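Hi team,

Filling in the usual template for the complex we talked about on Friday. All components are listed, including any nucleic acid strands or ligand strings, so the model treats them as one assembly.

SUBMITTER: L.P.
PURPOSE: interface mapping
COMPONENTS: two
RESIDUES: 834
SEQUENCES:
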Amino acid sequence: MNSENNLYINGREITIESEKNLLEVIRKANIDLPTFCYHSELSVYGACRLCLVDVEGRGINSSCSMKPEPGMKIKTHTKELRDIRKINIELLLASHKRECTSCVKSDSCKLLEIASKLGVEDVRFKQTLMNKGIDSSSPALIRDMDKCILCGDCVRACDEIQGIGVLDFAHRGSGAVVVPSFGKPLGEVECVDCGQCARVCPTAAITPKSDTKEVWDVLDDPEKYVVIQVAPAVRVSLGELFGYKDGENVTGQMISALKHLGFKKVFDTSFGADLTVLEEANEFLGRIESGEQLPLITSCCPAWVKYAEQYQPEFLGNLSSCKSPQGMVGALIKNTLPEKVNVDKKNIVSVSIMPCTAKKFEITRNSAEFKDVDYVLTVQELGRMIKEAGLVFGELEPESFDMPFGFKTGAGIIFGNSGGVAEAVVRHLSSNLNGADATVSDVIELRGINGIKRKRITVKDRQFNIAVVSGLKNAKELLNKIQSGEESYDFIEVMACPSGCAGGAGQPVTHNSETVAKRGKGLYETDKMLQLHNAHENPLIKDVYESFLKSPGSKIAHDLLHTHYKSRKRFEGGISLIQSGEEKKKISVCVGTSCFVKGSQKLLNRVVRHISVEGLSDEFEVSATFCAENCDKGPTVVVEGEIINHCSFDDLKKKIDTFRSE
Amino acid sequence: MHKHDLGQAARKFAKVCEILEKYDYKSDKLVPILQAVQEEYRYLPEDVLAFIATTIDISPARIYGVATFYSHFALEPKGKYVVRVCDGTACHVKGSNPLLSEIRNRLNLPKGKTTTPDLLFTLETVSCLGACGIAPVVVVNEEVHPLMIPGKTTKMIDEIMEKERVCDEQFA
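RESULT (copied from the run log):
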């Protein structure tokens, strides 16, 4: 022990190692100072004032924002500190909607936990609520600002992990509140539904939206034949809700519980993941052949897909046209099961259990008569249903998945990890191209928690440049480098949540930073224990192709298993520049990000000048609009409902002239 | 009158573009950008803020946060005449409160409203104008009115109203 690097906590000596702040040193000394706003993966904020310590010579400071220095003498639980912490909690509770007995978060609420730990037995202040009401406009998340404690975790998660910044503080002092832009409901702004805000929220201010009532209703309906599929990352996290160790695989009990709840068939989304590997690899090799639309970018993650539609229109052509594994299994259920079980298609209800909140949005993308998936439940919701039914989870006799969509290889299992999709595709490609299976050492660099992973993989005489990204801010960074020509890739896997689906917002709430990594490990171990590791070895996938889908990329495979994307506006609105009138012809120039970059602002200024110089303001109205959802073909102008892409001033002038001559 | 309005919206937008150009579309210049834009519109229209967010590449939620944090910024249209009654310690002691209620009565401002329906007046308080020697102070737009007493404020408002009436008649 190098005593030069020591400090003193409550008189006991401890060595500073690589800790970034005093709080981490204190926690290393087995003193669990409470915090709301400290997350090791986010920036230090220092708002909750619970990690306060008394530093000799410097007074009371927040330990999260203080650098540990040798020789420091720190006290962590003096009377003064205990009193301050308690009063802080009391003040928070005074403006918190305290309905703990009927709150969805009560089994994992950090406010409740800390209040009880600190011995807050009485709130001496008058209850003051803003009565903001509940925002249920989003398909994925619920906001209840009367439960917000202003720790800012959600604000930083959205900004620092996803680079979006949907939420921010507005107003000040006692009126301060965390809201989307202009105080709008979440469903009307640029949110991609990833739910990372809900994952870090210590209270129930932001929670995944619950669809359990709807699912109970269909389960109770004797007409309905309700089937369910379970995503890979669910089996290694559900156990957390029933006292199992983090990352422990509880597949058997989970299937048994689902059967008890009344689901007729329990399928595995990993089957769809195996299928995705085949379809996506086929698509990839086709693009390599033609040299077009590379890099191929994965499309399994619905938050990423929505992000790309809103922010990366130039890359929409690069996205794999494959539906997500959830969508693929859903499509197969709806199109093959009715015949097999002799039930009318309209009575088949397809439900899925996902570690993800954005999957709730994904199923709304398709407006077809029969949706691939009718309801998405998160792991949290499934846990509540199992508890509500009174099932003693740990005592259930294990059961197995139903065939045919219950059989999977390890490739389909690791889809739940960042790097898993890329690894599964590499495994497939290497045995497809040279007959030898890829070894773990080839792909090990694609594993792990890094936000951006890069690897050049050689298969026979071909090289594939692969990148794996988690966190949309990282995705943006990588795509910028591709656009600037700095980097180039053949294949990119993107997942919105750090560590991939294992760290999804639909997973059980955890305040332990190790939990997500343990779930990831659980998936790799499950892969190891399976007999097959390569998607195309899955005999039931072979059957499905032989009996139904024909071959990867066939017409029927394309109709059922693939989808398309569109530019999507982030928010509504526009600025009227030349006043509108009923009789007037409407000209809207898009000034959204993509069109703005392509010079639409100058175009707008010229057309406004043209209209006023020519004295046409009685015939035409002009407005600046934010997005015409044609971002890849900008600048876009809409004249009387007609879209003009790549519009120049001359094009627009000509169009105006044709209207005048009419 | 109609034609006059047409040009104005376009002119204002051109001005916003000019302001953004002046500050080189830099997000760290957000506050001066907002100040300049507010000078143009007398408030910060939502759509203009969304446009600014797009062009300087920060999230609209952050702009909304900044715009609501500072009381100087208004998200609703302010009146042509912004009447600010100083309510700093000195002015308060010297009776700024009666002035405030007098103006409020004269303007017939409904409860909870700060701007008259005809968008002519906005009534605000400020914490201190740094002119304690001539307390109580009322500022109308940029014009400082020192040593105000009840009666004087009503007269001040009446004069503005009269001026506006004459103006309107000329236009009509």
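MY TAKE: Chain A touches chain B at residues 159, 164-172, 179-183, 189-190, 571, 573-579, 591-593, 596, 601, 604-605, 608, 612, 617, 622, 624, 626 (CB under 8 Å). DSSP finds 22 helices and 23 strands in chain A.

Thanks, L.
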